[in-house]
Amino acid sequence: MKRLTLVRHANAEWKDSAVADFDRPLNRRGMAEAEATAKKLLEQERTPDLVVTSPSRRTQQTADIIAREHGFGSRRVKRDEHLYLATAEDILKVIRNTGPKVDHLAVVGHNPGISDLLKLLAPDAGTPELATGAMCTMTFKVTMWNSVAIGGAKDVQYEAPSSGIMGLFS
């Protein structure tokens, strides 16, 4: 069985037009959201084996906070250029290329792609769009990541730190 956690980057600065989209940092609220997401994973005893993240500053910061809270630093965080503003299909390719030793993969990305992927993997779960800092964890009854199929997600659990929304869908 493989466990996948999709995470939308936490809230980022958007008011400074002099800062390029790629370089936008998390704001104070975003830092709190990322910490809440990381702590929720800890409470659920769901530490990822690997965190793959878009290389943008806000996604990197979100992934680094998850790594710090779980005590593994940057050694289990991998930047993937294909994830910056990626489509659902692009993110799925990254997931399917993950090695077999990784049992719990976390992907930190951007909307609309990360939410679109959630809808593809768990179409019957009724999960909302991933808000900033939100995550959705699911399992797949496969032994290899390249076997993850559209509509194949089970035990889907959505968490949104800013609003306290959470739910379990089967």
Task: List the main descriptive attributes of the protein structure presented here.
alpha/beta, 28% helix, 170 residues, 4 helices
Offer a quick outline of the entry.
This protein has 170 residues and is α/β, with parallel strands linked by helices. 28% of the residues lie in helices and 22% in strands.
Give the helix/strand class. Answer: alpha/beta
- How far apart are the termini? 15 Å
C-alpha geometry: globular
Work out the helix count: 4
Beta strand count:
7
The secondary-structure element order is EHEHEHEHEEE
* Proportion of beta-strand residues: 15-25%
Percent helix range: 25-40%
Structure, described:
This protein has 170 residues and is of the alpha/beta class. The protein is built from four helices and seven strands. Strand 2 (50-53), helix 2 and strand 3 form a beta-alpha-beta unit. The longest helix has 16 residues, at 28-43.
How would the blueprint of this fold be written?
Blueprint: E1 2-8, H1 28-43, E2 50-53, H2 57-70, E3 77-79, H3 88-96, E4 104-109, H4 113-121, E5 135-140, E6 154-160, E7 165-169
Parallel strand pairs: 1-4, 2-3, 2-4
Antiparallel strand pairs: 1-5, 5-6, 6-7
